[in-house]
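Class, study these two lines:
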Amino acid sequence: MDKKEVMKKLGKFLAETKTGVLGWVNKDGYPELRWMSPCLMPYNTDCTYAITLEDFPKVNDLKNNGKVQWLIQNKSLTEVINIYGKINIIEDALFKSEVLENLSSNLVAIWKLEDDAEFVVLETIIEEIVYYDTMKGIKERINFREE
């Protein structure tokens, strides 16, 4: 499987499930995991995007250590995509509105927390994807750092 094929599969999973688990390391060195709603943007095929409130502790954690892992599965849980990458925190208003428009139908919980809170975009620059098909016993690594 190549980059284009795995990104197509990732897009299918996200359209189907609308969620993924983001993993990172907190300020005390422990792993943290959160369900989030990532998306893809059509003009950048090497990144995923999500939003979070700027005053959440994970934002500072990610500023200190931007290495992350995403876990995204298909609805029947038979195929899994693990994404390894680095986070950029984006505060640009125009870009935030683009990502928000892409994600708006998937975001219910974040708006119940604070009505007027500021948010940031978490851009994950993909370095590697590991794809698993548990029913077929397939495991494939796709390196995004090589061209």
